[in-house]
User: What shape does this take?
Amino acid sequence: MLNATLLRDSWRHWWSPEWYRGSVGPRWLPWVWTFVFNTGIALALTVIGLGFGRKFDLAAVARTNFVVAQAIGFSIHILFRLGLMVLGPERLDRFSTPQRALFYSGIPILGVLIGYVIGLSLLGVDVQRLVFESPRVVLQIIFFSVLISAFWYRYTAMKCASLLRETLWSMVSEIHSTIDFDYAGYTAENLARFERAYDLFEQDR
Assistant: This one.
């Protein structure tokens, strides 16, 4: 049964560097998070477009951003799942730094390329003609995919910092808090999560 705790834990697992280890909640829930994330990206791109102050058809732009963002996001999601099926979690754990860099940058790049083609095709765009007439489109797509890879690396660093902060806060609460709560267990849980996340971050450096 879905509840706030399950949804929170599932969302955190979806974001976690250990996304490939098991699942939290129903198997369809990670796909929902991918849809939500894609929708957020589409909304952000639409708002950024508004910020430039140019006159355009807001509904058309929002629709285009939504379709392309969904196509890209789900393409990347599927590719990561296929990679997990082929390699398995144990092999992912044993990846060297170059292998992890290739895996976590190559899949987003490929996913963005595939997603753009699918998204633009769904919108009725002649992708082949667009590429030949505007070669810069391909470079823009590759640049965008590299940004996604860089965002993932930056996120893992922020994740480590967040878990460390949570662990330190819990340690202090163990000593000073008068609230009836298992802070010792909470500290141990977050410390273990921090150590796993930091190990993965170090492997990616």
